[in-house]
Specification:
about 25% helix; globular; alpha+beta; five-stranded antiparallel β-sheet; about 130 residues; three-stranded antiparallel β-sheet; single chain
Length: about 130
């Protein structure tokens, strides 16, 4: 019974979404997942950054991460997920951590905990022509 339940949870967590519906005042905006540059924890919400604007979304970083394409989005810090297509470069801080430079010019920290996954995601996106 527990094995069946675990399998159902894993299947639910692997559902990828193309859009998020985000309440913005009295209206609801449809945000395309591919347009998201950065997602940051901003308790009790998460902050979703696109090229045009920032949104607050009532969900956890962990739950949104399970809905995203792991080939496009990668966690780089315990409180940040980045769209790998928006990364311009990354530089070592010489202490195990890195700075990631986004195409927008913004610089964000890449924690040493997530370096291996970041490099793997970056290499696979480079091979696929992104």
């Amino acid at each position: 019974n527990e094995a069946i339940h675990l399998e159902e949870v894993q299947l639910q967590n692997e559902i990828e979404v193309e859009f998020l519906l985000i309440k913005n005042g009295k209206s609801i905006e449809k945000v395309c997942i591919r347009e998201i540059i950065l997602i940051e924890a901003s308790k009790p919400y998460i902050s979703i950054q696109t090229a045009e604007k920032n949104f607050l979304y009532a969900e956890t970083l962990k739950s949104i991460y399970h809905q995203l394409d792991k080939g496009t989005f990668v966690q780089i810090h315990r409180s940040r997920i980045v769209n790998i297509e928006s990364v311009k470069a990354y530089h070592s801080r010489l202490n195990g951590d890195y700075d990631v430079l986004l195409k927008s010019g913004e610089k964000i920290r890449l924690s040493r905990t997530f370096v291996e996954g970041f490099k793997k995601c970056l290499n696979s996106s480079t091979r696929s022509g992104v």
